[in-house]
Write a structure and sequence with these properties.
The protein has 410 residues and is an alpha+beta fold. The chain has 2 domains: 2-51 and 269-409, no CATH class; 82-221, no CATH class. The protein contains 13 helices and 13 strands. The protein has helices at 2-14, 17-51, 84-91, 129-132, 145-150, 159-165, 206-212, 231-248, 264-307, 309-317, 322-358, 372-398, 402-409, and strands spanning 59-64, 82-83, 96-104, 109-113, 116-125, 135-140, 154-158, 176-179, 182-192, 201-205, 218-219, 221-226, 259-263. The strands form 2 sheets. Strands 4-5-10-7-9-8 form a 6-stranded mixed beta barrel. Strand 4 (109-113) and strand 5 (116-125) form a beta hairpin. The longest helix is centred in the C-terminal third of the chain and has 44 residues, at 264-307.
Length: 410
Amino acid sequence: MIVEAAHEILSALRHHKLRTFLTALSVAWGTFMLTLLLGAGRGLENGVAWEFRDDALASISVRPSQTSLPYAGRKPGRDVRFTDEDLDAVDRLPGVEHATGRFYYWGQLSVSRGSRRASFDVRGVHPDHRHLERTEMTHGRFVNDRDLRERRKIAVIGSEVRTMLFAPHEDPIGEYIEIRGLPYRVVGVFEDQGGQDEQRKIYVPISTAQAVYRSPGRLHHLLFTLTTEDVPTSQRIADATLSLLKGRHEVHPDDRRAIRIHNNLERFGKITEVFTWIRAFVWIVGCGTLLAGVIGVGNILLISVAERTKEFGIRKALGATPRSIVGMVVVEGLVITLTSGYAGVVLGVGLLEVVSKALPAAQYFRNPGVELDVALGAVALLAISGTLAGLVPALRAARVDPMVALREGD
């Protein structure tokens, strides 16, 4: 029974090979473009998400700059300088979880151990800094409070620093490296999701960095994580931080250049919203292309029904029910849409895999692909489209009068 039905459907489709092929091609092109656009959109989204891998998502960073407006008897152009007291004040704000300052050794510093020498980025930090940079300790420990109090000359090095300054069999913990001629004892090795650039950094206690540069209490950068991932709440905390620091440094409330604040959570939320609209646009474009193919399927089935009027009349005269005729025509539509649609999806996924393997991991385009739920959604869309494409022609075939059909056939 099933074999006979399949044979009848295939015979009907083979009757107009070129027309069936062109219609199937339009459906395949629609699903191919939909898959390709969704995969490319995912690649862009992954690329942007990759840019956030290095820092804690729910975090805020603050940098001092120069005033641009006069205020409290002070002229514009005054440098704003953060101190340890600013960090303590920010750390007491509601909603702040982990707070740290940074003191930069400007430029790449020459670091050596024995005959090995290279240049690295060295930063003075607080113990909570590892929560901001998602630092993962692989050996030893990070900077602690005692290091800060005693201004110890200790260093926490990235894995790339270890590779360049130590032999593979050497344990760096407890060994000494020289930073600009001063000895620092290595107490830890870390890895960072930011990649090789982040793993080429060296962290020292911020109090030690301040002492070396004779800048007691000076901070170049404030950073802190939040206790919430709610964007509106993070905006309120950012506003409170800005107001606090402007008040402490006598900065005009409307001066936007004196203190620069960056809300990582807010930025990520805006980017996520943009990609939500992009995905909706892609679905609209892809479904529009697919709709054109489905209309083509409906048209070919209408023509097929018109040419097979006598056949349907004979079937009804021999006892075929309208339901069986509707089912036959609908299945023909499903065969065209599902077969060609699956082909388009497979080709699209295949091309995305080739592109993913052939192209190097770019900064803003990584791992393009289509997720399982999207693929299942496309399958459901194909099934619905195939059913709708065959429904109108099927109902027309079911309404064929056997006597009229036989007379027209003669």
